[in-house]
Amino acid sequence: MKITAIKVFVNSPDRNFVTVKIETDEGIYGLGDATLNGRELAVVAYLENHIVPCLIGKDASQIEDTWQYLYKGAYWRRGPITMTAIAGIDMALWDIKGKAAGLPVYQLLGGKSRSKIKVYGHANGNNVEETLDNLGRLISEGYQTIRLQCAIPGLQDSYGTLADKKDYYALQSSRSLPPEQVWDTKKYLNFIPSLFQKARDKYGYDMDLTHDVHSRLTPIEAARLAKELEPYKLLFLEDAIPAENQDDFLQIRKHSTTPLAVGEVFNTIWDCKDLITSQSIDYLRSAATHSGGITSMRRQADLAALYKVKTAPHGPPDISPIGHAAHAHLNIWCPNFGIQEFVGFGGDQMQKVFSHPLSYEAGYLHLSDLPGLGVAFNEDEASKYPYMRSYLPVSRLEDGTLWDW
Ligand code: GCO
Ligand code: MG
């Protein structure tokens, strides 16, 4: 089966998505997600200028060799642009293989390890009361694991909160230049433990809670937070520090038994290898879309399994339904799957452009048995929503110093 064409679509149904479509001489086509939030067009250029010309006429069934060709064969390895572009191609080839076999991708990975996929939802708010109300709502919708984020008193626009926006889609699609947010570690550290205390006082300990620091602390500050959160028994504390000096995770470990999660900005197995083999983390949060696709994620999951690390794929609104479907197939198969982040199925425009094989029920996602990844992409509908420049925010301290967002 030969690749006859590769089309790259960049559209903005509610928000920007980059979609790869690989066509073959047998009429079967595959879809992949190559969306990199705020850097979409760099991935489009990488695909169109550097990858597509090399793959026309190649055998669509050679997924492994194609992955190696694009990774090792480029000499310039790794990095988010390259690995997101490779992910788009890789997912589309798995989609084709599944469709050609008449099987869902999880069957090609080895079949099901479970019947449904446990998810965690987000409860956030502009104050403690609103956050706890949202936590109560998610519990009543069946979520057993919930991430808690709250605006920090004295700071505007804290990460993970919506301010005056109705949902994530409204929040992120309204940006044409990077908005600036103010960060203050002392205000944050003095506040977060009390949020969790109030959540446990109000709702008890039946549900699991998580929290995303979004990489803003130093190792010793992160150790303090992890230690102070111990009484509230988090499932995990996410991105407590940036994963640049990876030994720093052991500093946090020395002081606390709060489980640690990291990985949403990782691009390859090399980014998580040392963290896994040193058992510095408990949950690996790589995303298929930003980490080289299904081929690469499967390898990361297998390495993690050797060290009792579970997978918890990144599931933000800036991954398309194709990326979420790739996670669902991996999650159903993966023996060491932990939990999937889930923020809903998107807005009206997105639902019209993509149809997907997932349904939510009482804290779990269910995956249908459609062949391949099971996603359909409506090109005519997508063409109604042109790309819109959009950036993630940046953080500064109160004196103007640039900080980690
Ligand atoms: C999460 C993430 C996201 C990222 C976003 C960046 O845990 O879901 O931290 O909120 O900030 O995906 O594009
Ligand atoms: Mg995160």
Brief summary of the model shown:
Helix content is 38%, strand content 19%. The chain is built from 14 helices and 18 strands.
Plain-language structure description:
The chain is of the alpha/beta class and 405 residues long. It folds into two domains: 3-103, Enolase-like, N-terminal domain (Enolase-like, domain 1, 2-Layer Sandwich), CATH 3.30.390.10; 109-372, Enolase-like C-terminal domain (TIM Barrel), CATH 3.20.20. Helices cover 38% and strands 19% of the residues. It is built from 14 helices and 18 strands. It has helices at residues 40-55, 63-71, 80-101, 105-109, 128-140, 168-173, 185-203, 219-228, 248-255, 269-277, 293-306, 321-333, 348-353, 379-382, and strands at 3-11, 17-24, 29-33, 117-125, 145-150, 180-183, 208-212, 236-238, 260-262, 283-284, 310-311, 340-341, 354-355, 358-361, 364-367, 376-377, 394-397, 402-403. The strands form four sheets. Strands 4, 5, 7, 8, 9, 10, 11, 12, 14 and 15 form a ten-stranded mixed β-sheet that branches. A three-stranded antiparallel β-sheet has the order 1-2-3. A three-stranded mixed β-sheet has the order 6-17-18, with no helix packed on it. Helix 1 packs across helix 3 (80-101), helix 8 packs parallel to helix 9 (248-255) and helix 10 (269-277) runs parallel beside helix 11 (293-306). 48% of the residues are buried. The protein binds D-gluconic acid (GCO) and magnesium ion. Residues 212, 214, 238-239, 264 line the site of magnesium ion.
